[in-house]
Amino acid sequence: MKRLKQLKPGWGVLPVVIFLAIWEIVARLSLIPGQFFFPSFSTVVMEFYYLTANGVLGDNFLASLVRVLIGFCAGSVAGIAVGTVMGWRENINKALNPVISLFYPIPALGWLPLLMLWIGINEALPITIVFICSFFPVLYNTVTGIKNVDKDYIQVARTLGASDVKILTTVVMPLALPNIFTGLRLEAGMAWRVIIAAEMVAIPTGIGALMMRAESLIRIDIIIVCLIVLAVMCLSFEKFFTYLEEKATARWR
Amino acid sequence: MPSIKLENISKYVCRDVSLEIFDRELLVLLGPNGAGKTTLVNIIAGLTDYKGSVLFDGVPVDGLPASKRGVGYLFQDLILFPHLDVAANIAYGLKAQKHPVSEIETRIDRLLRVMKIKHLSRRYPKHLSGGEKQRVALARALAPSPRVLLLDEPLSSLDAQTAKYLRTGLKQLQRRLGLTTVYVTHDLQEAEEMADRMAILEDGHLEQIARPEEILFYPGNEKVSDFIGAPNILDCDYCHSLGQGVMEVGCGGLSVVIPHDRDLVHRIAFFPRDVYISETRPPGPGVNRFKGTVAGIKLADDAVRIELKAGENSLLAEIPHHIFEDMDLAVGKEVFLILKLRRIRVYENRDL
User: Which of A23, A51, A86, B176 could form a disulfide with A93 if both were Cys (CB 3.0 to 4.6 A apart)?
Assistant: First the structure.
């Protein structure tokens, strides 16, 4: 049983290996009509190597990564800050909630035409889109997390002589962390999806733009390379926040 | 430690409650659920607004927030901070009040030893048992050296055996530290064990405040009597020692043997549930077995209450429904009563 548990992580790779093998076989045996539109896995790997070696993939990936990191960090920090104030002070929540409720349902990409006109087509555009994409969900999760903290914990801290700021920083925020991390985890992946879409539509650099160029050249292998990079990044970002959340809360949850 | 005075306190169900808790006294607030006990404790702690005035040592503290009142509060659900380990939970108040680090460490170490939880210092609350949590919560409340200790049904979530063990420890600690303490419970036995005095609350109204034995033997009104279980209270006409730690007392024509051997017995009391009824003469020696007549029968939800006439006394007995159904009791019927010796409470003749 112990040996089985030790082997367990390895089993997760097996379906992926099977999937890749089937892909390779199907492509090589030309089982799907229009072979040109369905490159084998090995072709995609080779293309990945070429794109990496000549720096094209690296440059575009870096451009997307920087935009995601800046937009996501700024949006999350702002979301946590405003969410904390709204969750902690009911009067501020009442004042801001109607406005935020109005903007929250708008998909981040829905802002694109407006922002193209307001900001112009430059680096600030995709960063702003990612900012919007991250800000609202993180804000809502923060507000919910803070409001869900049992009022008894606050009362206890008060009787122990803690000030409001002390209660917020040492009791409320730590207990709201699981909710906040849920928002961050979900939006970390979403930020990548949004940046790709924005780059496809309006920005000449980045993974999304590379995909659009590949599409115009009918380079399916490059498109698949970009999709794999996108999938890995979405997954990595989500896993990173799952790891952080566990680090921060697993001891006491 | 300060005395606490509540003057005309009104909030929610509480109406015009005035009472005083003396310096170093343990006052038990006793009453059914919804009587306003927790509300009063929250008012003393400064956790809620209220009408009226609260004074510590004669000084009004109404304007002071909870963080400045210097109270240690042990909540009903204990409410340990789940994200802090035991040592950090206990240190929380000291850090919040910005005590020096060396002092914090010394105090935590002392409290961990006093509460016998030193081995738990690095554990998180989710890994603690109910009794351990209770001790950690008490240590946390005591850490900032509060002037007043408020305990809101702190043992209600524990099993009976652990609760009894902790009750004894709690009482000893309160005595040793000389803390003015308010202890909330709805359990009469717990209240009797803990209290220097008891305050009976019903529907937000203070019905009686007195020593436990005074409340048992001299319930202020019918509400109090009903709440404490409507004990049969008999005045004693005479008493003399039989040796071996027992005495014989005469109460309205009944000769009752009681487990007592000092002073002059003034009154005895026993609860209706401690009176057995038999339709036939019970076997064994004739001690604490009396002839009586059924004077009334009242069916209640939880039991059947039988009013009895025995000697010159009117007594109340309480029997479960299924036993009542097996018996053939009717008003006017002659029955035998048996009193449980160890359940008879004794009030010595001394000034109230």
Answer: A86
Q: Do B82 and A175 touch (CB under 8 A)?
A: yes
Task: Give the integer Cα–Cα distance in Å for B312 and B47.
Answer: 52
pLDDT of B181-203, one tens digit each? 999 999 998 999 999 999 999 99
Place of tokens 């006394």: B313
A22: tokens are: 């089937």
Residue A147 Cα, gap to closest chain B Cα (Å): 16
Residue among B66, B67, B81 minimizing CB distance to A153 = B81
Q: Which residues of B touch A161 (CB under 8 A)?
A: 67-68, 93, 96-97, 144
Q: b/e per residue, A139-165, with b = 16+ CB within 10 A?
A: bbbbbbbbbebeeebbbbbbbbbbeee
Q: Are B96 and B60 in contact (CB under 8 A)?
A: no
* Torsion, Cα of A33, A39, A40, A42 (10° steps): 170
Q: Which of A151, A160, A173 to mutate to test the interface with B (most CBs of B within 10 A)?
A: A160
Distances (CA, A) of A251 to A157, B85, B95, B123, B235: 21, 9, 22, 9, 62
Least Cα separation, residue A182 to chain B (angstroms): 18
The residues spanned by each domain of chain B are 4-227, 233-348
Residues of B with CB under 8 A from a CB of A: 45, 47, 65-69, 71-73, 75, 77, 79, 81-84, 92-93, 96-97, 124-126, 140-141, 144
The domain B233-348 having CATH identifier 2.40.50.100: the answer here is: yes
Q: Which of A150, A162, A252 sits opposite B96 (nearest CB)?
A: A162
Q: What is the pLDDT of residues B27-37, one digit of tens each?
A: 999 999 999 99
Domain A45-249 CATH (choose: 2.120.10.30, 1.10.238.10, 1.10.1060.10, 1.10.3720.10): 1.10.3720.10
Q: Find the CB nearest B83 among A162, A163, A174.
A: A174
Q: Which fold has domain B4-227?
A: Rossmann fold (3.40.50)
Q: Which among A155, A160, A175 has CB closest to B83?
A: A175
Question: Which residues of chain B have a CB within 8 Å of the CB of A249?
Answer: 83
- Output the pTM of the full model: 0.83
Chain B hits for A252, Cβ within 8 Å: 82-84, 124-126
Whether the predicted pLDDT of B349 surpasses 70? no
Q: Is A155 within 8 Å of B82 when comparing Cβ atoms?
A: no
pLDDT string in tens for chain A (253-residue length)? 455 555 565 677 889 899 999 999 998 888 777 667 889 999 999 999 999 999 999 999 999 999 999 999 999 999 999 999 999 999 999 999 999 999 999 999 999 999 999 999 999 999 999 999 999 999 999 999 999 999 999 999 999 999 999 999 999 999 999 999 999 999 998 999 999 999 998 889 999 999 999 999 999 999 999 999 999 999 999 999 999 999 999 989 8
Asked if pLDDT for residue B321 goes beyond 50, the answer is yes
Predicted-assembly ipTM surpassing the 0.85 threshold:
no
pLDDT of residue B352: 40
State residue B159's pLDDT score: 85
DSSP notation for B31-59: --TTSSHHHHHHHHHT-S--EEEEEETTE
Pick the closest to residue A206 from A233, A236, A178 (CA basis).
A233
Closest residue in chain A to residue B99, using alpha carbons only: A161
